Amino acid sequence: xxxxxxxxxxNAKSISRSLLxxxxxxTTVERPTLGQAEAxxxxxxxxxxxxxxxxxxRRYGRLxxxxxxxxxxxxxxxxxxxxxxxAPANSATVLAWVHYRxxxxxxxxxxxxxxxxxCPFTLPRTLAHKLSLHGGRWPRRLRNKWIAIGGLLLIFxxxxxxxxxxxxxxxxxxxxxxxxxxxxLEAFFTxxxxxxxxxxxxxxxxxxAAISPFQIQTRSAQVCRTCQGKExxxxxxxxxxxxxxxxxxxxxxxxxxxxxxxxxxxxxxDNVALGLRSPIKESAALRWPxxxxxxxxxxxxxxxxxxxxFGMVPPVYALLDWLDVGLRLHxxxxxxxxxxxxxxFLIPAGLAYGAAWIGMxxxxxxxxxxxxxxxxxxxxxxxxxxxGIWLAHYGFHFAIGGLSILPxxxxxxxxxxxxxxxxxxxxxxxxxxxxxxxxxxxxTAILGGFLISLYALARRALRPNREPLLGLREMIPWAIVVTxxxxxxxxxxxLPMEMRGxxxxxx
Amino acid sequence: xxxxxxxxxxxxxxxxxxxxxxxxxxxxxxxxxRLDDYPSGPYLLRAVTSPTPPRQGDFNVEVRIxxxxxxxxxxxxxxxxxxDPVDHEGTPLEKEANHAYAPLPxxxxxxxxxxxxxxxxxxxxVESEFGVGEASFYQDIAAQNSIGxxxxxxxxxxxxxxxxxxxxxxxxxxxxxxxxx
Lengths: 507, 181
Hints:
The complex is a heterodimer of chains A (about 500) and B (about 180).
Chain A: E1 2-3, H1 12-21, E2 24-25, H2 52-57, H3 63-82, H4 91-110, H5 114-117, H6 122-131, H7 146-161, H8 168-188, H9 193-198, H10 200-208, E3 214-218, H11 221-226, H12 231-234, H13 262-266, E4 272-276, H14 281-284, H15 292-310, H16 314-326, H17 332-363, H18 371-378, H19 382-401, H20 405-415, H21 435-461, H22 468-493
Parallel strand pairs in A: 1-2
Antiparallel strand pairs in A: 3-4
Helix pairs in contact in A: 3-4, 3-8, 4-8, 4-19, 4-20, 6-8, 7-10, 7-15, 7-17, 15-17, 15-18, 15-19, 15-22, 17-18, 17-22, 19-21, 19-22, 21-22
Chain B: H1 2-16, E1 32-40, E2 43-55, E3 58-67, E4 78-85, E5 93-97, E6 108-111, E7 118-128, E8 131-141, H2 149-180
Antiparallel strand pairs in B: 1-2, 2-3, 3-6, 4-5, 4-7, 7-8
C-alpha cells in the first residue's frame, strides 16, 4: 500500500497511524524555500551557526561525536576485562562512574541531551536496524515508560548490591550487556524501542534534558504545513527519520528526543533548528501528556537521586543492619531491593497519588482523568529539584575526582609499555575545583532546584478564571512533597559520601 | 509490630535530621592513594587514606605491603600508623593497623582521627622478618562540613512559606482588582 500524508493541519495520532499503516512511504520533491525572515522567531539556532552548524547537519555529523565515545566505550570494556581490578586505577570505573555521570549532567545545562547525541550504543544498533527488514513493531502495550522505570530500578539496585562502581570487570560487563541489548532490540523491531522505551540512561537523559537551553524546533511553521513528505519523521532516501518517531512541528519538549539531528538532515527544506529556549519552560508551563508512567518516571527519578546518594552515606549501613537483625532479612540483595523499591518507587508513587488525591478533594475538582490529570499537571515540577539533587551528587564525584583520569591513563599506557605521558602516574591529581567550594555548590544546586520547582508548581497551579487560593489548595500537597524531598536531600548531603571510582576500593 | 513501626519512624526521623559527619571505618567517605608502591626498606608500600577529603575526627589509613624483591604481599607484619600535627596544636596519635579493620583482607588499616584541622604528618612503620621499613606523607585535615540543622530545615520551610504568602498576596490582589471593576 502506498500512502501519502497530506499537508495542512497535523495531528500526532494521524501521523503515527499513517506511519504504522504505510508499507511504502513516498516523499514529495516539491521544495518550498525558506526566507530568512521566517526563521526570525528563533532566538539562536545552533544548527545555522557557521562551522558548528554545518558540521552538525552533515550526513555523518553525528559520527564525529559517536566515534570518540565508541572508542571510550571499547576502552571501558577492554580495560575493565584486562586492567587492574582496582576501581580508582582503572579507566572503566573512572570513566563510567566519575566522568560519564559528571559530564552528562553538565551537558544538560549547556546544551541538552548531549550523551544521547553521541551515544555509542546506537552505532552497532544502526547495523542491526538494517538487518531488521522484517522486524515487527514494538508491542503497543509496552509503548510507555514502565520498562524504563523498571530498568532504572534494576540498575540502581544492581549498582549498590554488586558494588559495580568498585568493579572494573562488572562495569565492563554492564557496558557489553548494553551493547548486546540495544543490538538485539533493533534487530527484532523496526523502530528504535531501545532508546524510547527501554534504555535507563535514555530515560534519565530525556527527563533532565527538560532543563536544557536547546530544543528541536521548526524554523518556519508554514513550510511544515505545506510539507507532504514529512521526512523529519519518515526519513528521506539517504537519511533515516526520527528514531523515536517525533514529528518536528509538534515537538514541544525534549522528552524522547535523542538530539541525533536526523530530522535536520532529512528535512529537504532545511527547516529544522536546534533553537534556544527558556530552560524552565518545560517544568513550569508546558502541558505534558497525561500518562501515569511518564509522570511517575519524573517523580521517581527525583527520589532516586535522593536514594542513590543515601546509598553512599553511613546511615544506610545502619538501616541495612537493622533490617538484618530486626526483620531477619539476611540477604543483602533482598534488603537493598526492599530499600530501593520502597524509596525509589513505592514511596514516591504513594506520595504522588496522595498529593493528587488531597489536591482533588480540597478543591472539589473533578478533572476528566482524575488523579492522572493532576499528577501529570504537577509531575514536571519535580524536574528542577531532581536535577539539583543529581547535580549535587554527580557533580561532587566529578569535582573530587575529575582529574584522576590523567594518572589512570598514565598507568594504562605504562602497563602497555608506553611512557609517552610520563614514567610515573601522578596520583596527586584528582580534584577539579578547590575542595572547600564543593559543599556550598552542592547546597546551592539543591536549593536552586528547589526554588525553581516551587516556581514551577506555582505556575502550574495558577489558571485563568480560578481563584489563586484554589490553586494553592490543589498545589500545596505537591509543594510539601518537594519540601520533604529537599529536607532529606540536605540531610544526606550533610553526611560524608563514599567516593565512587576515585582512588578507592569497594568495601 | 508496633515496636518495629516505632523503630522505623525513629530511624526516618533521625535520617531526616542533619547529622554531623560520623564516618565509621575505611570506605565511608572515599579513598585516595597517597603512596603507590613506595620503596621503604625491604618493602614497597601502598598507602590509601579515607575519607576524601579527610576531616577532623575522621581519618583512616590502609597499607598494602609488598616484598620489594618478589612483589609478594606481606601479611605477617607489625604495622604502626602515627599522626603528628605540623606547626599547630594537636594531639599526636599512634595506632597499630590490623587486617580486621582493612576492607581488603591482605592489607592493614587503622583509624587515626586527628583532633584539630591543619597539616599533619602521617608516618607508617612496618616490621617483619624481612626487616624494618618507614614512610611518611603530609595530610591536610579539613573541618567538618555542614550548613547546620537550623539552616537545613529553615531554608526549605522558608521557601514553602514564601510560596503560600505569594498565593495569599495574589488572592488579595485579584479580589481588589475585581472590586475596582
